[in-house]
Design brief:
This protein has 14 helices and 17 strands. The chain is of the alpha/beta class. The protein folds into 3 domains: 170 residues, MoaB/Mog-like domain (Molybdenum Cofactor Biosythetic Enzyme, Chain A, 3-Layer(aba) Sandwich); 78 residues, Alpha-Beta Plaits (2-Layer Sandwich), CATH 3.30.70.2860; 141 residues, Maf protein (Alpha-Beta Complex), CATH 3.90.950.20. The strands form 4 sheets. The protein has a 6-stranded mixed beta sheet with strand order 2-1-3-8-7-6, with helices on both faces. It has a 5-stranded mixed beta sheet with strand order 14-13-15-16-17. The longest helix is centred in the middle third of the chain and has 20 residues. The two termini are 48 Å apart.
């Protein structure tokens, strides 16, 4: 079954809100084995909505609309969809009862009752956290149509409470995926290594997705059951792990920082960080995760030389080597580990731009990692054209990767 998600709302076209409904629906539908081939957005205009429906009906088996179910004069999705597919509207008594209960003790204007009209022959989806019901129905020419509200909270609640069961009975099969998370090679380098294998695969399929400093490989299989899908993927997953080696930092994990926190937790060890050019980004990424306090002792933003010296960095080293140097990165890592009483210390210093320091170009970063027994330093050249955000993100990624490698017995410094 192929699907098109048709999101209705002028506010989406104006950029006033982000269309998270389409993302959430795509994730849910793929889990049912439904192939989402198209996303479309149309404003609150019946004529243009009819045009969009005609296009969708010509290329998709399933059409899912979101938005335009409210009580105001511009909320015309349900009426337009019903008219397009030749479905008269009826007045749903349960929808009215639930609507009046929603407004109990408050004044309800009569225009709210328009939300209780639904296409004849549909399966109603009653709203558990709002006022507008949705529905699903089959058309005379064999299409499946699902109508859902636009507010993300209502859409997701209705999806879970009713729409997924309605679609599951019609979809057949399932789609399962695994995300292979890598750090240390660019998308083009990974694609070149795996190109022949990716082109040869049909089911499962494999595709790379680049993000700042990382590459995610998505392995996807379609089968009748989840167990069959997993059986199709298992040998390919093992093959990818062998081919990519230690640049794989996890499968179906959230992020580098989540991987590092889990490794520290299993070992019962702690971490502290001293950040100059990253300006607290490492601390933010770590503390964004629940449970970080069990292993993360804290961080110090050592943005100026006096603060570096307060932490314990030797003034002579700063004067002789400069703040952006291997020596200072190593001392930052050792000093913050000792000062905060952690098992591991990370120290980051570098030039995020827009100007160099007369010695190094923008994008020069040194990352130190210290344990009780040893100190490592990774020297990075992240590119003179890099902006501040990219330099900081990549520097933090490298710091986390160094710690990940040390915790798992891999080589830490770059070859």
């Amino acid at each position: 079954m192929t699907a098109e998600i048709l999101s209705v709302g002028t506010e989406l076209l104006l950029g006033n809100i982000v269309n998270t409904d389409a993302r959430d629906l795509s994730l849910a539908l793929s889990g049912l084995g439904i192939d989402v081939h198209w996303h479309s957005v149309v404003g609150d205009n019946p004529a243009r909505l009819r045009q969009a429906l005609a296009v969708a009906a010509g290329r998709a088996d399933l059409i899912v609309t979101t938005g335009g179910l409210g009580p105001t004069c511009d909320d015309l999705t349900k009426q337009t969809v019903a008219e397009f597919f030749g479905k008269p509207l009826y007045f749903d008594a349960r929808a009215e009862s639930e609507l009046r209960a929603f407004f109990a003790g408050r004044s309800m204007t009569e225009n709210n009752l328009v939300q209780c009209a639904l296409p004849e022959g549909c399966t109603p989806f009653y709203n558990t956290c709002g006022t507008a019901p949705g529905c699903g129905f089959e058309t005379a020419d064999g299409h499946t149509v699902v109508i859902l509200p636009g507010p993300p909270k209502e859409m997701n609640a209705m999806l879970r409470s009713a729409a997924l069961d309605y679609l599951r009975a019609r979809a057949g099969g399932c789609i399962r995926s695994h995300n292979i998370m890598t750090f240390g090679r660019g998308e083009s380098a990974i694609e070149a290594r795996l190109r022949d294998r990716m082109n040869a695969l049909r089911n499962p399929t494999l595709a790379p997705y680049a993000k700042e400093g990382e590459v995610r490989l998505r392995l996807t299989a379609k089968a009748e059951t989840p167990e069959q899908a997993e059986a199709l993927m298992a040998p390919i997953l093992a093959e990818l792990r062998e081919a990519l080696g230690d640049i794989v930092y996890g499968v179906d994990v959230e992020s580098l920082e989540a991987t590092v926190l889990a490794l520290l937790g299993r070992r019962g060890e702690t971490l502290a960080a001293a950040e100059s050019c990253t300006g607290g980004l490492l601390a933010k990424r770590l503390t964004d995760l629940p449970g970080a306090s069990r292993v993360f002792r804290g961080a110090v933003t050592v943005y100026t030389n006096p603060v570096k010296e307060w932490l314990g960095v030797d003034g002579e080293t700063l004067a002789r080597c400069g703040a952006v140097s291997r020596e200072v990165a190593a001392q930052l890592a050792r000093c913050v580990r000792e000062k905060l009483g952690a098992d591991w210390g990370l120290g980051v210093t570098g030039l995020a731009g827009p100007e160099g320091d007369g010695v190094h170009e923008v994008g020069t970063v040194f990352v130190g990692l210290a344990s009780a027994e040893r100190t490592w330093v990774r020297a990075l050249r992240l590119g003179a054209r890099s902006d501040r955000s990219r330099v900081r993100t990549l520097a933090a990624n490298h710091a986390l990767d160094m710690l990940r490698r040390a915790l798992t017995g891999l080589a830490v410094e770059l070859a």
